[in-house]
Hints:
globular; mainly beta; Porin; 2 helices; 14-stranded antiparallel beta barrel
Amino acid sequence: MEGSRDYLSGKITNFASYVDRFFGGDRHYQESNQTVVQLDLSKLNGHGSDHQFDFAARVNLRLPVTEGRLHLLLETDPERNIITEPTSATGNSAVPGQVAVPKSVALAARYATPEENAWHLNTDFGIKFPIPPKPFVRSRGNYSTPLGDWRLKAEESVYWFNTLGAGETTQLDFERIISPPLLFRATSIAIWLNDTQNFDMRQDLSVFHTLNDRTALLYQASAIGVSTPQHQMTDFVVQALYRYRMHQEWLFFEVSPQLHFPRDRQYHYSPALNLRLEILFDDSR
Length: 285
């Protein structure tokens, strides 16, 4: 039975890791013990649009002499990953067609413990620019275990930024291979910030569909809510995402039609279309 469990657990883990690597998501960037470089240029049209192209960059550089325990990180706007919204807007004052310049650039050192017994921990110490530099710290731990035909992954992050104050994020993932090209994942996220004394919550139900080695699809339904001033749902989102590997192993294009049902519009539907061009390097590419 242990052999069967280990085989099934490894099968789910390997396929989920392949999916995360192809989509270049936050899990791949955070959990990879190899060097990862991500450059994104995206444009949102419709609901939440700020009429600009949005540029983001992240580099996770593994230092080989430390056996992968030390990494150097370079990120634009490091707080932007601590959000529950599928897309973010900066307001309607933006000039159409311009590229939004990142508000800050961060440099950090990461210490990561070796993965043992399904546990993985890392801690970042960094500073943000421009001058005067502002320090930040964040620590993240995750644990995964098989549950029959499923895999449970639990993750906890604590952090402090000068712009956000202290906060924590809890995430639970339940995932299962439906069939070899299909992976189902249910993700529950709760974010707490000390400055607002509020929980932001999100539930995603996702199906990743790998068509071939160049193309994949994501189908996702999301519910987004807050705990203050009262528990309420602020948005429901359904979206499909088409991701295509345009060139070699590193140039990707995405198109994602979305339907939002925001509370501030009495849950009437509001369409959006997100386009993204991504350069993604890691040691497997």
